[in-house]
Every structure is written in C-alpha cells, then in structure tokens.
C-alpha cells in the first residue's frame, strides 16, 4: 500500500506568499503527495479580549496583529491554487470554523482535514462531512468517545475518511508517540489510520508507517529558527526529502505479507535442496 504523504505548511509561511511557494517547491521536489494550509476566520475563532491582549510579533504588539498577519485571503489562495496546479501537487487546508470551510469550497480541493482542535465540534464536523470529500481526521487531545462520535457523523453522512493518530504537543517527545494506537484505532473503528506527527526528526514517522499508518502528515519549514510557534516541530528541506525516501523504501521492505519465493531464492533452493 502506498503511503499518502502530506507536507503541512500550515502557518509557517508567516503571511508571505513567496515563502509559501518556496515551501510548495520543497514538498513537490521531495515527492510529497500534497501540501496543507490552515484557514481561520479570526473574529470567529478567537474572543475579542484575547485578540486585544499583548503579544509581541514582527507585525505588532497584539494577538490580533499576529493572527491577522498569518491569514491568507482569496488573492493568496488563488495564487496557491494556481501554483500547486503548475507544480503538479495537490493542496488542501484545515479550517478552524465553518465560514473558513465554506471559503475553501470554491477551490474544489480533493481532500478535507479536520484538525485535532475541531474534533469535538459536531456542527463543524457535519458541515465538513456534507461535502463528501475524502477527509483526514486528526485525533490529538481526543477521547475514544469523541473519536467515536466523529466517526459516527462521517459514516452517517456517507463521507469517506481516515483517522490520524496524533499527539498535539509541539514538539512531541518521541517516547509519547504511542504508535500502537494506530492498530488500536484500526481495530476499534475498522478504517484506515494515518499519523500526524509533531516530533523532531524522521524516525518516529517512518516507524508509524511500519506500524500500519496509511498516511503521514508533517509540518515543513525552510529553517526551524524562523519566527513561528510551529517552526521548531517542523521538518527542514533535507528532512522531508529523507522522510519521503525512507517511507518509499520501507514500503518495498514491508512487502505483501504473502509467502512467496523470489527468483533468487528459487536458485538458492535448487543448490541447497537439490
């Protein structure tokens, strides 16, 4: 089975369309299947008191200034849509509110993503499931009951989906990966299960594929020292290239699970068994 690999650009573009394009270039060159962004309606997602509170950033001294600077509007997404088509890579985004989900519909993206933060928002889940697009559903911070309710909504709507095992700590200590949950979720919900990772390095994500993950999602950045809350748990260009290469090699190594003799082994058998 071929693992679906998504490079999460998220908000690591820092509101700069040219930086976003560079990250798309990296993902495409690495051989990723898709890139993903995040979309929020600031006034809906955050309370006014929070937006007016202090936060020092390159764009000002309030949370509002920082949040607004990181949000792409229609002009930028038009350019992203065109650029990804030119580069031959799919794109989609995780919306953090219903208005953002409606905004994204105009682009006809093949996939949807439910972020871990939105898993318990049943009205939002129903809105996403109504579209009937293949949806990646992250399970960070969720209880099994919350996951079950989300699965129930997607199944009731007849919307194809796969769960993504996830730990929502940025960066996540490798010992907290709990990759055996991939098998647990598969058994419990009888569906595909991927892995959305926030650790540093490539090892845990490669192990997730060996543990049965059908998809991998990792944040990418040009440089982990750049401004941004997600940068330190993101993969630099050489790392995403290595991850894709290792996953494709691992897929070959894992094989089909059927007992067969290769041509070379048959020759050995003739020598050793006569």
> How many E-type strands?
10
Q: What's the arrangement of strands in the largest beta sheet? A: 5-2-1-10-9-8-7-6
- Secondary structure: helix percent: 40-55%
How far the N terminus sits from the C terminus, by CA atoms, comes to: 36 Å
The average pLDDT is: 97
Succession of helices and strands: EHEHHEEHHEHEHEHEHEHEHH
Could you say which overall geometry the principal axes of the C-alpha atoms support? globular
- Main beta sheet strand tally, sense and closure: 8 strands, parallel
Estimate the strand proportion. 15-25%
Helix segment tally: 12
In terms of per-residue confidence, which ranges show pLDDT below 50 for 5 or more consecutive residues? none
Q: Kindly provide the radius of gyration, computed on alpha-carbon positions and rounded to a whole number of angstroms.
A: 20 Å
Number of folding domains? 1
Structural class: alpha/beta
Please name the fourth-level CATH homologous superfamily.
Aldolase class I
CATH names the topology as TIM Barrel
Q: What is the CATH architecture term? A: Alpha-Beta Barrel
Report the CATH C-level class: Alpha Beta
Layout of secondary structure:
Elements: E1 4-10, H1 17-30, E2 34-39, H2 42-45, H3 48-51, E3 54-57, E4 60-62, H4 63-69, H5 74-87, E5 90-95, H6 98-104, E6 111-114, H7 122-130, E7 134-138, H8 144-157, E8 161-166, H9 180-189, E9 193-197, H10 203-210, E10 215-219, H11 237-254, H12 263-273
Parallel strand pairs: 1-2, 1-10, 2-5, 6-7, 7-8, 8-9, 9-10
Antiparallel strand pairs: 3-4
Structure characterization notes:
Helix 1 (17-30) links the parallel strand 1 and strand 2. This protein has one domain (4-273): Aldolase class I (TIM Barrel), CATH 3.20.20.70. The protein contains twelve helices and ten strands. The model has no long low-confidence stretch (mean pLDDT 97). It is 44% helix and 19% strand. With 274 residues, it is α/β, with parallel strands linked by helices. The protein has helices spanning 17-30, 42-45, 48-51, 63-69, 74-87, 98-104, 122-130, 144-157, 180-189, 203-210, 237-254, 263-273; strands spanning 4-10, 34-39, 54-57, 60-62, 90-95, 111-114, 134-138, 161-166, 193-197, 215-219. The strands form two sheets. An eight-stranded parallel beta sheet has the order 5-2-1-10-9-8-7-6. It has a two-stranded antiparallel sheet with strand order 3-4. Helix 1 packs parallel to helix 5, helix 1 runs parallel beside helix 11 and helix 10 (203-210) packs parallel to helix 11 (237-254).
């Amino acid at each position: 089975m071929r693992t679906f690999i998504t490079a999460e650009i998220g908000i690591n573009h820092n509101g700069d369309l040219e930086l976003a394009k560079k990250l798309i270039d990296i993902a495409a060159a690495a051989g990723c299947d898709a890139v993903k962004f995040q979309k929020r309606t600031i006034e809906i997602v955050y309370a006014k008191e929070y937006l007016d509170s202090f936060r020092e950033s390159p764009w000002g001294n309030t949370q509002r200034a920082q949040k607004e600077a990181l949000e792409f509007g229609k002009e930028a997404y038009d350019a992203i849509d065109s650029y990804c088509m030119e580069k031959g890579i799919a794109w989609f985004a995780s919306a953090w509110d219903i208005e953002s989900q409606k905004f994204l519909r105009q682009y006809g993206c093949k996939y949807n993503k439910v972020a871990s933060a939105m898993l318990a928002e049943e009205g939002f889940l129903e809105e996403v499931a109504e579209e009937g697009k293949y949806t990646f559903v992250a399970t960070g911070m969720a209880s099994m009951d919350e996951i079950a309710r989300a699965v129930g909504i997607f199944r009731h709507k007849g919307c194809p989906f796969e769960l993504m095992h996830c730990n929502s700590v940025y960066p996540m200590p490798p010992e907290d990966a709990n990759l055996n949950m991939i098998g647990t979720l598969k058994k419990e919900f009888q569906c595909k299960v991927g892995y959305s990772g926030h650790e540093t390095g490539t090892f845990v994500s490669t192990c997730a594929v060996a543990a049965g993950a059908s998809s991998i999602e990792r944040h990418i950045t040009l440089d982990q020292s750049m401004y941004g809350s997600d940068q330190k748990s993101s993969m630099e260009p050489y790392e995403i290239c290595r991850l894709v290469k290792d996953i494709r090699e691992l897929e070959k190594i894992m094989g089909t699970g059927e007992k067969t003799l290769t041509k070379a082994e048959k020759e050995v058998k003739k020598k050793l068994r006569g």
